[in-house]
């Protein structure tokens, strides 16, 4: 049985008690301890900056040319925190409750409560760094709503919150680089973990400019490399986002938890053709003011403006009156798919629904006219005023939509459809964020810990910064306090040589195939299998077929992939090939996990397990556990279970009606 190391005592005092009793490392000893951080998004940058400031010797690695290019920069809508500025009933407990419920009761209570506890500190930290959060007229920080909540707790910086938060963490990181506490290795990719006496003691990294393999020692290694949504090929993730760091950890003994828990985001620009390499997210914050609808008539080809109000089906408001357009992402995504599958979709593909701001523009226009004490104002002037308010709140998102689609969203409704976005699964970690390999930790989206089967919007940024700024500085000390007598291990140690040799052999094998098909050919085929059979809906037959198809595709990849260029040079195709090879293994495990979990919960929707009205139907008696998979070899995995115990929030059928 997995030991999550959850502290004893009441839920609301576990974290304080832990901090009061964990082991500490004195400042003189910190200077002799080395920590490796893989990834420099919000989790990695905040962790590296915090640990560097504490006095540890930190090495930070990213495959981009700058930490500022980490995919965290793409987050748009906001970051949650339980500050209750609106005085609308929010609290630490309410944030905890919403997160556990939103994750469909498949998250660990203790971790989620800690996340809610430190959420307010994150905002204070970021404000102190100069993050330009939106503010009300009087200067107070502004909040808006996100799906799955009935309060306003989301702090934001227009539609570029992730960018501003990352710049804050980046500035903290660069300060530590300038002080000599952090050494930054950009354009480096981690290709293996080095274990000595069962503990993580370093990595093998490839310099992506020269192709040279490098050995790096660390008393501990932190995996902060993000999620694995690109296994589907088309997703909202940056093209470089991959699973390689986490997968190498898995092949070295770290269990991979809940891989089938992937999130489909309901608010994305629909697929336009086979030419696309990624999809574009439109922030969930748009659902604050936009109303989602489809025509009441099937296969309606009229323009949106020609469809009168009485012939529109605002289906989320109809089905979920208590939450309306702000239901959680998994609920909104399935509802959109159901309407499109039933023949009510819009646009040329009929795989889209409308997101309409007309009512919000008019409402804001009236409010603005009243604020300015303007009376007898024409409808045109009201609309003009309303557009100005909407532009201030969401302008960059509207501009982005207009550039991509060629349509003006101020004049005609946006067309949106669900797309792969976030992954709730990841490396299994205990309460201290340590994997099943001693000395190997995982933070942010790379771990599984806080979101259960469905992440609420604006909680990814919260978790990444909570892990990096406020959790790992305490928990890693509890481990390193016992490592102060361990001197830096020579890079000539046989474990480093063996790991490097293994990486070199894999690269040589890839380069020697000299097949006829590109890396993208295999990635696209894998993505189609995953989307069709392990996407928004899954069933037993489809998952069994997917497993066989992926195995066959993997065999073909290792016989017929073509990688141009040389291994000892800048070679993006070689980078991609290694990542797709890992996706081909992970994809099979995702399908195996989905096949094993014979229930529906959150983003995992088994067609055999649904209520009479098409909602997800959980099986708490048989599946109230974290599925942690141990890698034993190709297509060989052993399932370990961490039973989930709910003391504060009793599982019930989720209802947003």
Spell out the blueprint of helices and strands.
Elements: H1 14-21, H2 27-30, E1 34-38, H3 42-54, E2 57-61, E3 79-80, H4 92-102, H5 109-129, E4 154-155, H6 161-179, E5 182-185, E6 188-196, E7 199-207, E8 213-217, E9 220-223, H7 244-251, E10 256-257, E11 262-268, E12 291-295, E13 312-313, H8 315-319, H9 329-344, E14 353-356, H10 358-371, H11 379-405, E15 414-423, E16 426-427, E17 440-442, H12 460-480, H13 494-513, H14 519-534, H15 540-560, H16 572-596, H17 620-623, E18 625-633, E19 636-643
Parallel strand pairs: 1-2, 1-9, 2-5, 9-17
Antiparallel strand pairs: 3-4, 6-7, 7-8, 10-16, 10-18, 11-15, 12-13, 12-14, 14-15, 18-19
Helix pairs in contact: 3-6, 3-12, 4-5, 5-12, 10-11, 14-15, 14-16, 15-16
- Helix fraction bin: 25-40%
Tell me the CATH superfamily of the domain at 267-419. Succinate dehydrogenase/fumarate reductase flavoprotein, catalytic domain
Which residues form runs of ≥5 with pLDDT under 50? Answer: none
How many extended strands? 19
User: What kind of assembly state do the chains in view correspond to?
Assistant: single chain
Residue share in β-strands? 5-15%
Q: What is the name of the CATH architecture of the domain at 267-419?
A: Alpha-Beta Complex
Total DSSP helices: 17
Widest sheet, order of strands: 5-2-1-9-17
Structural class: alpha+beta
3D shape? globular
Task: State the name of the first-level CATH class of the domain at 267-419.
Answer: Alpha Beta
How would you characterize this protein structure?
One of its GO terms (cellular component) is plasma membrane. The active site is at 329 (proton acceptor). Pfam families: FAD_binding_2, Succ_DH_flav_C. Helix content is 39%, strand content 15%. It is an alpha+beta fold and 657 residues long. Helix 10 (358-371) crosses helix 11 (379-405), helix 14 runs parallel beside helix 16 and helix 15 (540-560) packs antiparallel against helix 16 (572-596). The longest helix is centred in the middle third of the chain and has 27 residues, at 379-405. The model has no long low-confidence stretch (mean pLDDT 96).
